[in-house]
Write a structure and sequence with these properties.
Layout (H helix, E strand, L loop, with lengths): L1 H10 L1 H9 L5 H12 L1 H14 L9 E3 L1 H29 L9 H17 L9 H27 L3 H31 L6 E3 L1
Antiparallel strand pairs: 1-2
């Protein structure tokens, strides 16, 4: 059912959001059956790409990561995805009454997970970690994620379009802050707890 909904939000998002709203998922189900799989896509893809193909800026010189340093980085990234999704869902649940919403944390988690699906799937670009290619794919995925957010909030939260717009903007702000926080944390971890070891490709 999750795969069907995932495809539906790409082809006919507004109708699919209504279908998702009528189903009830537990937080445990969302984390174990959905986020656990989605978060693995970018983590595994980047691990394979950076250790087997190598990271490059322009395609002329590839720099490989050693497996011993890439593995803990991939695991840390995987866990970070869980934390990020859970935190954003909690933020939505915390803010909802301000905008007239009254749904459970589980529904906020479902909204967050399906909205972030394009970003998770864009992680497949990590199999070929060329900077410009990954940036383009990431921007396309982010654009569609924003679209899903603005179409999903009024349906899942059951609030008028005008309030939903401002609520979606608040959620987007939280999401961008979380993204910046993840990048900053990643840089700090790479320099301290999980330092990366590079080799020439």
């Amino acid at each position: 059912m999750f795969l069907q909904h995932m495809m539906g939000v790409f082809y006919h998002p507004k109708e699919e959001w209504r279908s998702i709203r009528n189903e009830h998922y537990s937080a445990m189900h969302v984390f174990l059956a959905q986020i656990s799989i989605l978060a693995a896509i970018p983590a595994i893809s980047l691990f394979i790409g950076t250790t087997q193909i190598g990271w490059t800026l322009d395609g002329s010189e590839f720099v490989l990561l050693s497996v011993s340093s890439a593995l803990p980085a991939a695991l840390a990234f995987y866990v970070a995805m869980w934390v990020a999704v859970g935190f954003i869902a909690w933020s939505i649940h915390w803010m909802e009454r301000t905008y007239g919403g009254n749904v459970s944390y589980e529904e906020c988690l479902v909204l967050t997970t399906f909205t972030a699906t394009p970003l998770f799937l864009s992680g497949l670009a990590g199999l070929y970690p060329m900077l410009w290619f990954n940036v383009i794919v990431g921007m396309i995925a982010l654009s569609y994620t924003v679209y899903l957010l603005y179409t999903g909030v009024p349906e899942i939260m059951q609030i008028p379009e005008d309030r939903a717009f401002f609520f979606s903007t608040s959620i987007l702000t939280v999401g961008l802050c979380v993204l910046v926080g993840l990048i900053a944390t990643t840089v700090i971890l790479w320099g301290t707890i999980v330092p990366l070891s590079f080799t020439s490709g």
